[in-house]
Amino acid sequence: MSNWILGLTGGIGAGKTLVSNHLASLDIDIVDADIIAREVVAIGSEGLDKIVTRFGQDILLPDGALDRAKLREIIFSDIEHKTWLNNLLHPLIRQSITSQLANATSPYVVLSAPLLFENQLDALCHHTLLVDVPVEVQITRTSARDIVSKEQVKSIIAAQMPREEKRQSADSILNNHRDIDTVLAELEEFHETFLKLAATSKR
C-alpha cells in the first residue's frame, strides 16, 4: 500500500466527525470504519447471509435488514456468539478498509475509526491523530446529541480504551474543547504537516 495513511480517532462525542468532514472539504479521501462496518452486513452481503444462517430469520427486520438491537442483545449475553461474530466481521471490515485505502487518490488518506487502537488498525497507518476532549465534555455532548442518559454514555466510554492511554498512543492530539475557529485553524496546520509528510514519504 503506497498511500500515506493518517489514522483518525477519538472517543464518543469528541468531534471526530467534525475533523473528518473538514479534511474531506480539503479534498482528502476519508475511509470510515463505521460506514464499512455497516456495509459488510448490508442486505445482500456475505456477512448478513452468514449471520442469518447462524441466528435464523428472526435476526432480520421486516425489510430484510439486520436487527442490530437484537444482535447486540445476543452477543452481550453469550461470549461464544460474540467471538464468532468478531471472527466473521473483523476480516471483512479489514479487507474493505485496506482496499479503499489502496484506491485513494488524494495526497494522503484518512482512516477514521473510533476503535483505531483497540482493533489494532493503527498498524495500517503512518501517523495517528487523536481528537480529544475531557470526559465530562464527552458525556454532555453525547447525551445531548443522541438523547441518551449520562449513565449510558458513561458505560460506552468505560468500554473503550481509557482517555489517557489513547493520548499516550497517538502521534498527534487535537484538543477539541475550544472554540471551533481555533480548532479548525490548528487542524489546517496539521493538514499542512501531513501533506509534507506524505510528499516526503513518496520520494
TrEMBL record:
Name this protein carries in UniProt: Dephospho-CoA kinase
UniProt catalytic activity: 3'-dephospho-CoA + ATP = ADP + CoA + H(+)
Task of the protein: Catalyzes the phosphorylation of the 3'-hydroxyl group of dephosphocoenzyme A to form coenzyme A.
Pfam families, alphabetized: CoaE
EC class: transferase
GO molecular function: ATP binding; dephospho-CoA kinase activity
Compartments it resides in: Cytoplasm
Family indicated by similarity: Belongs to the CoaE family.
Binding site for ATP: 13-18
Broad class of the protein's primary localization: cytoplasm
InterPro entries: Depp_CoAkinase, P-loop_NTPase
Lineage: Bacteria, Pseudomonadati, Pseudomonadota, Gammaproteobacteria, Alteromonadales
EC number: 2.7.1.24
Keyword field: ATP-binding, Coenzyme A biosynthesis, Cytoplasm, Kinase, Nucleotide-binding, Transferase
Pathways involved: Cofactor biosynthesis; coenzyme A biosynthesis; CoA from (R)-pantothenate: step 5/5
A GO CC annotation given for this chain: cytoplasm
BP-aspect Gene Ontology terms: coenzyme A biosynthetic process
